[in-house]
Every structure is written in structure tokens, then in C-alpha cells.
Design a protein that fits this description.
By secondary structure, this protein is α+β, with helices and mostly antiparallel strands. It is built from 10 helices and 21 strands. Helices cover about 25% and strands about 30% of the residues. The strands form 4 sheets. Strands 1-2-8-7-5-4-3 form a 7-stranded mixed beta sheet. Strands 12, 13, 14, 15, 18 and 19 form a 6-stranded antiparallel beta sheet that branches. Strands 11-21-20-16-17 form a 5-stranded mixed beta sheet, covered by helices on one side. α7 runs parallel beside α9. The two termini are about 40 Å apart. The N terminus is likely disordered.
Length: about 400
């Protein structure tokens, strides 16, 4: 759920097409929060979408006198806005999809194909929203149903979007209120075929291909059914965002190769740390790891710097992996998270999560105020096993994939 964080102000007393004010404080806050994207166009898209999230959802809650739940959940919105605009609000059993635009003309409602053809994303109603942050306002000027987009709209294959002509759009927003209140009965959604899921191997290959931030429009690089199936899965969508941010490896970590002295980029010997760009990191890392001594000559250990910094502060942590052979087929694994950079303790609230190949969560640990290490109990990994380690703080997260 989302709660209004700023006063909701109508610039003009037009209840059928409301004009919602953007305060200078909100504008500055959202602009700062939208800088962590891979390209200027992505940053602008995130900025406009987040502004509308902050003003349109509270307006809906006030208009419908009910709480709204944002879809996807707020911490996952960055992974959506990295590649496509839009978000949804679930309220009173209806899903309202908002895809903001800065376009001044109102001769069409244009909705990306993802919001019309991914079954778990589609809405009942699609709001036509224009944003003008320079002049400080957002206007909701009409709406259409999913069925209207599918049955009366035209599909534009060049940019994978559905377009509904302006004369087809309902301009009186009071009718939307009545529909959400149950006073208007109508068929809002068209039937869709389910997507064919992508396998883990397919997903890894697609992520390697699309994770390059120099690809300005990854959503147009592969056939839509593959793209939609990839994007619908939160785990793959989040990893795509991380890769385009340069915060995840393009290749899963092959732990067995570590015994052959073959290590993926970024994984270093804890005794030979020399992080560039983080003054004091070496001293603190040595201090944090000084109590760790190899107990077995066959042990292999490596640490990787994980950057969760935002525009206000530098946040660096180190993921330490230690592996000890049990027999030819099994390894004992130790996973620990240590503070790096300037801090001697981990950020409060940082979470370490261990998942299996089927994405079932095995363990989750969370840092309190003065923790200087997070760790899981020792576990055994067998040949052919795959597991995932997620490090998350607020809306920022990094996931590493390991296999034996």
C-alpha cells in the first residue's frame, strides 16, 4: 500500500478531469530518486512515472475513499522503469493502469504492449495522464478499458504499443468512480493466452544479451513472447535491472572452477584486497576478516565488493564465500556479509537472502543497528545444484547466482 506523503492540491476545480499540483519539494525529491538509471532516457522515464505515482495514487485513494496497492510493489518499480513506463494501482477490486506521458496533444491513448498483453499486468481501466513537471502539474484527462484497447485500438509494431484514438477515450472521470464503486457493470478485460515461461538457461542467455546498458531499447531486441515471459518474472526483471546498472555479473559463478584457480570478475582473495575508489576499504576489510582463518588446506574463499550506494551516501559491503570439499560431489558452503568502505558496521536493515534453484527462500537474515557481519548457517551444495544470494537495502538489491 502507499500512503500520501504530500498534500494533494487541485490546481483547477475540474472534478471530471482533475489537475493535480506538483510541489517544488516533491519535484526535487523525485528527481534525486530517479538518477540511478543506466541512461538519460531511462532517468527521465523514471522521474515522470514516480511523480505521477506520488500524486495520482493519493488522488485515487481520496476519490474512491479506499486504500490502493501499487503494482508491481514499489521496490520493484525501478526494474520496470529501466525498460518501460507504467505502473498500476489496485483499489476496490479493480486494477487501474497509469502510463504517463509528457505529450501535449490528446489525440490518442498510447499504452506499451507489456501492460496490455502480460496476463499478470493487465488492468481493468487505463488512465490517460499528462505530466508537466516544469509547470508543476499532472492531469488525468480520460480513461479506457482493456477491452477497448484490444478491440478498438490499433497495434503499432514499431514500438510495441497499443493506440486508442482520442474520440474513443472516456473523458468524464466521474464515470470511472461509478464503475469502481460497482454502479456501472461492464466487461473490462479481453481474454489473453498464457505466456510460455522461459527456462533458467534461456533466461541467463537473454540477460547476457539484454543486460548491456548500451542497448537503449532492450524491449525491442527479442520477440515479444520471450520478452514478456522474461519481464513477468520479478527475479529475472530485477536481475536485468542490476546488470544494466553494472551491479551483477553477466555469468553465474561456477564454484567448482574455483579449485582450478579460475574466478569470475570481481571475486578477490580477502588477503589481497585493494579496492580502488573506496578510501579506507582495505584497512576495514582486513579488520573485518582478521578473525577468519582457513581451517582446511583445501578451502577456497573469495570476496566480492557490492555497491548499494545512492545519491546521498556511499554504501559498500563485501560478500564472502568460503567453500570446503566434503567428497567428490559435495561442498560445504559458508556465506557472510561484511561492511566495507567507510563503515565499521553494516547498514541497518540490509538483508541477506539465500534461495534455491526453484526460488524458494531457504534463509533470510537482516542487520540490526550495530551488526558487523551477517551469515547463514553452513550448508552443503551437491554437484548440479544452483542457488541465489540476494543482498537488499531499501529499493536497491543485487543478486548473485552460484552453481556447482
Amino acid at each position: 500500500m502507499i500512503s500520501p506523503q504530500h498534500d494533494l492540491t487541485l490546481l483547477y476545480d475540474d472534478l471530471t478531469q482533475p489537475w493535480l499540483a506538483i510541489s517544488p519539494e516533491l519535484n526535487d525529491e523525485v528527481w534525486q530518486d530517479s538518477q540511478a538509471f543506466s541512461a538519460p532516457g531511462d532517468r527521465r522515464r523514471a522521474y515522470i512515472n514516480r511523480l505521477c505515482l506520488k500524486v495520482v495514487v493519493p488522488w485515487l485513494e481520496e476519490e474512491l475513499e479506499a486504500r490502493a496497492t501499487v503494482f508491481p510493489k514499489e521496490k520493484s518499480l525501478a526494474s520496470v522503469w529501466e525498460v518501460v513506463g507504467g505502473f498500476a494501482a489496485d483499489v476496490k477490486g479493480k486494477r487501474l493502469v497509469i502510463v504517463p506521458t509528457e505529450a501535449a496533444d490528446r489525440d490518442e491513448l498510447r499504452v506499451p504492449q507489456e501492460w496490455v498483453e502480460i496476463p499478470s499486468w493487465i488492468g481493468d481501466y487505463y488512465l490517460a495522464v499528462q505530466a508537466n513537471p516544469e509547470d508543476g502539474w499532472v492531469q488525468v484527462w480520460g480513461y479506457a478499458t482493456h477491452a477497448m484497447l484490444k478491440e478498438r485500438g490499433s497495434y503499432e509494431w514499431q514500438d510495441r504499443a497499443y493506440s486508442l484514438a482520442g474520440e474513443e477515450i472516456v473523458r468524464d472521470l466521474s464515470l470511472l468512480t461509478l464503475a469502481c464503486e460497482g454502479y456501472i457493470e461492464e466487461q473490462t478485460r479481453s481474454l489473453l493466452q498464457p505466456l510460455t515461461p522461459v527456462s533458467e538457461v534461456q533466461a541467463e542467455n537473454l540477460l547476457q544479451r539484454l543486460g548491456n546498458s548500451h542497448k537503449a531499447f532492450p524491449r525491442l531486441e527479442i520477440p515479444f513472447p520471450q520478452w514478456a515471459a522474461l519481464l513477468e518474472q520479478e527475479e529475472w526483471r530485477d536481475r536485468l535491472y542490476q546488470w544494466r546498472q553494472g551491479k551483477a555479473n553477466g555469468v553465474p559463478v561456477n564454484l567448482r572452477q574455483w579449485f582450478e584457480n579460475l574466478f569470475e570478475a570481481g571475486w578477490q582473495d580477502p588477503q589481497n584486497l585493494g579496492w580502488s575508489g573506496a578510501r579506507g576499504a582495505t584497512v576495514q576489510a582486513e579488520s573485518a576478516l582478521s578473525g577468519l582463518q582457513k581451517s582446511n588446506q583445501e578451502e577456497v574463499w573469495r570476496i566480492k565488493l557490492v555497491d548499494l550506494s545512492n545519491v546521498k551516501e556511499e554504501i559498500l559491503v563485501g560478500l564472502l564465500v568460503t567453500m570446503t570439499p566434503q567428497n567428490n560431489e559435495e561442498m560445504q558452503i559458508s556465506l557472510q556479509l561484511h561492511p566495507m568502505g567507510y563503515s565499521e558496521v553494516l547498514p541497518e536493515g540490509i538483508t541477506l537472502k539465500l534461495s534455491e534453484s526453484n526460488r524458494d527462500v531457504l534463509e533470510t537474515v537482516k542487520a540490526r543497528g550495530q551488526d558487523n557481519c551477517l551469515e547463514f548457517p553452513l550448508f552443503t551444495c551437491s554437484s548440479g545444484d544452483r542457488f541465489y544470494v540476494e543482498i537488499a537495502l531499501g529499493d536497491r538489491s543485487v543478486t548473485e547466482t552460484f552453481f556447482l
